[in-house]
């Protein structure tokens, strides 16, 4: 019997960035120059929506959707500004592993 290979290949962060920015461009969000401060504020707004979902009913599916919206905005931004988020994530995660318990802070 031939064993069938599973197609469970996780998408890389760089692939999410490429796809999210491509979709945003196709939907017209980058036809005019965009302001970095406004784009960061829109990332915040998705986190606020996640908080509101928690306060209203706490359904994990709705909270996840708002967190996904925030990630999509971050990925789109990184695609537009040519930011290597994948490299930064790997570097930061490796650094955090070297930090002391609770990073030496009380809270
Ligand atoms: Mg949202």
> Structural class, please?
mainly alpha
Count the DSSP helices. 4
* Uncertain spans: none
Binned strand content: under 5%
One letter per element, helices H and strands E, the order comes to HHHH
Number of domains: 1
Largest beta sheet, briefly?
A: none
Helix content: 55-70%
User: Which ligands accompany this protein?
Assistant: magnesium ion
Q: Please provide the count of β strands.
A: 0
C-alpha-based Rg, rounded: 18 Å
Quick structural overview:
This protein is an all-alpha fold. The protein contains 4 helices and no strands. The N and C termini lie far apart (56 Å).
Task: Characterise the protein shown here.
This protein is 66% helix and 0% strand. The chain has 107 residues and is mainly alpha-helical. The chain has one domain. The protein is globular. It binds magnesium ion (MG).
Keywords:
0% strand, binds magnesium ion, 66% helix, mainly alpha, 107 residues, 4 helices
SSE blueprint and pairings:
Blueprint lengths: L12 H14 L9 H21 L3 H22 L3 H14 L9
The site of magnesium ion (MG) has 4 residues, from helix 2 and helix 3.
């Amino acid at each position: 019997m031939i064993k069938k290979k599973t197609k469970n290949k996780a998408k890389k962060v760089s692939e999410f960035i490429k796809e999210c920015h491509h979709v945003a461009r196709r939907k017209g969000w980058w036809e005019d120059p965009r302001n970095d401060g406004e784009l960061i504020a829109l990332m915040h707004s998705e986190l606020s929506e996640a908080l509101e979902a928690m306060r209203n009913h706490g359904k994990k599916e709705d909270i996840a959707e708002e967190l996904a919206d925030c990630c999509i905005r971050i990925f789109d931004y990184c695609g537009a500004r040519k930011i290597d988020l994948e490299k930064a994530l790997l570097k930061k995660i490796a650094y955090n592993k070297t930090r002391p318990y609770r990073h030496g802070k009380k809270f």
